[in-house]
Structure formats: C-alpha cells, structure tokens
C-alpha cells in the first residue's frame, strides 16, 4: 500500500512539473498583447514557424521542447523551406531519401508525400534538397524531441505561381485534418539590415501575417523574409484550417546572440498556430 502511494505521489509531482514548465514558457514569452496566446489545453497546435539559422539554435531547441510538452502525438512534420539556391527543375523540390543525424535517421513519410506528388510543380530532387539548410537544420531537433516522427521536406523557389501556392495550401489543409501532422515553416526574417531597420521590417511583416495579406507578403524581399512563397502557402493553409490562434514563443535577432552586433542582423520568429 505504501509503495502504491509513493507511485501516485511521483506521478502527481511529474505532472505538476510538466504543467508548470509549459505555463512558465508561455507566460515568460507573453510579450505581444496583440497575439492570442494558446497556453490552454483545449488548443491544438497544428503548425508553427521557426528559424533555420544555426546561430538561433537555442530558439529552435526551445520551440521543439515546448511543442513536445504541448503535443506528443505528432507523427509527421511537413517542412516548408526556402530553396535558398533557387535551383531545381520544379518550383518545389522534395526528397524521398531518409536523412541521417547524429541522433539517428529521420525517415521520410512517403505515404503522405503520395498525396502531393500529383502536383506537376512538385518534384523529387535529391541532389539539390540535400544541401538545403532550411530543411537540414531542423532534423536533429525533430529526432531529439520526436524520435519516431517522419518528415516531408518541401523547398520553394521563386518560380512558384500564386495559383500553385493556393492549390498546394488547399491540399495541406486537408492533410492537417490529421492531428498527428504538424506543418512547419522554416523561415528567417529580416536580413542584413541594421537592428533598428530590422525591427521596423519585422513589424511590417507581422502586420501582414496577422492580416493574411498575401499581396503584401508577395511583394516582400529578403529585407522581410527569406521565402515569401513558403510563408504565403503556410498562412493560406492556416487560414483554410481555421488555425488563427497564435502563440508567440520568441522574437529575436542575431544581435541577441552576438553582443554588440547591431549591423547586418537577421531576425527570427518562433510562432505556433492552433485551432
């Protein structure tokens, strides 16, 4: 009987620590009064935005650590990344090859990809996507916090058309009806600006994102975000899914990691979207 009480006590303490940790992360990062924070247990986190710059690895780690506290059911991550080199035979390139990390292999969800392969603007390109760091940077974190999860990597060049973007977003909306799938936009925001200018550009980008202003986002260059194309598809999928409850986990720039570096900064967001 005494052992039973000890087990119950241990379970209770563990549950309390987990709840406190999640509450602390949400509360401490509740920096934007315009954002609807989603710390309650009823909100299902379906998607998110996180950086892919190695310098911001602590932000990326916190993103996945906190996501793991919120939703342990995730089985597949669809990664929307820039195609930084803007290369490949199709506007969107992907991979069907499992990827190795220091923690082990991250498998591709070939079954889920089967629901996207009918799009003529999406093509398998192993040679070019393997060097895309917008995908590669996230794989060790996925393996660390979701060791059995699979991925579907999608890297977007500037060649994708708006009609194609909306068509793909509609397909992603249907896929996201499965609560075991998480849509990740791997994006860095303001690039190579002074800190003051980057902050102004970030405010402009945030306003366009919250208003789902696709025309405005389409006009952006790297001063705002490194892939307006991926951002448009992500936001359109969110709008169609009704995932408009937003959690801002963090908003920083490279100046937060490099003391005194207030020129040529890159900015980063960690956001979740839920319904």
From TrEMBL:
<comment type="similarity">
    <text>Belongs to the MEMO1 family.</text>
</comment>
<keyword id="KW-0472">Membrane</keyword>
<dbReference type="InterPro" id="IPR002737">
    <property type="entry name" value="MEMO1_fam"/>
</dbReference>
<keyword id="KW-1133">Transmembrane helix</keyword>
<keyword id="KW-0812">Transmembrane</keyword>
<protein>
    <submittedName>
        <fullName>AmmeMemoRadiSam system protein B</fullName>
    </submittedName>
</protein>
<feature type="transmembrane region" description="Helical">
    <location>
        <begin position="7"/>
        <end position="25"/>
    </location>
</feature>
<dbReference type="Pfam" id="PF01875">
    <property type="entry name" value="Memo"/>
</dbReference>
């Amino acid at each position: 009987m005494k052992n039973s009480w000890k087990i119950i006590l241990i379970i209770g303490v563990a549950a309390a620590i987990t709840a406190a940790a999640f509450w602390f992360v949400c509360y401490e990062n509740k920096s934007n009064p315009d954002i609807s924070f989603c710390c309650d247990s009823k909100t299902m986190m379906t998607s998110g935005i996180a950086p892919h710059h190695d310098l911001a690895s602590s932000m990326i780690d916190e993103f996945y650590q906190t996501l793991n506290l919120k939703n342990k059911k995730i089985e597949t991550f669809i990664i929307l990344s820039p195609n930084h080199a803007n290369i490949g035979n199709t506007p969107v390139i992907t991979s069907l090859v499992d990827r190795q990390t220091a923690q082990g292999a991250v498998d591709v969800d070939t079954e889920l990809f089967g629901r996207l392969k009918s799009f003529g603007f999406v093509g398998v390109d192993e040679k070019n996507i393997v060097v895309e760091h917008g995908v590669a940077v996230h794989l060790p974190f996925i393996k660390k916090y979701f060791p059995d999860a699979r991925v579907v990597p999608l890297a977007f060049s500037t060649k994708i058309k708006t009609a194609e973007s909306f068509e793909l977003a509609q397909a992603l909306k249907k896929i996201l009806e499965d609560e075991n799938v998480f849509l990740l936009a791997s994006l860095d925001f303001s690039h190579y600006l002074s800190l003051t200018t980057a902050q102004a550009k970030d405010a402009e980008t945030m306003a366009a994102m919250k208003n789902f202003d696709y025309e405005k986002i389409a006009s952006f260059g790297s001063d705002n975000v490194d892939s307006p194309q991926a951002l448009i598809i992500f936001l359109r999928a969110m709008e169609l899914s009704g995932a408009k409850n937003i959690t801002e986990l963090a908003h920083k720039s490279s100046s937060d990691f490099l003391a005194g570096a207030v020129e040529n900064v890159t900015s980063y967001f960690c956001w979740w979207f839920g319904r």
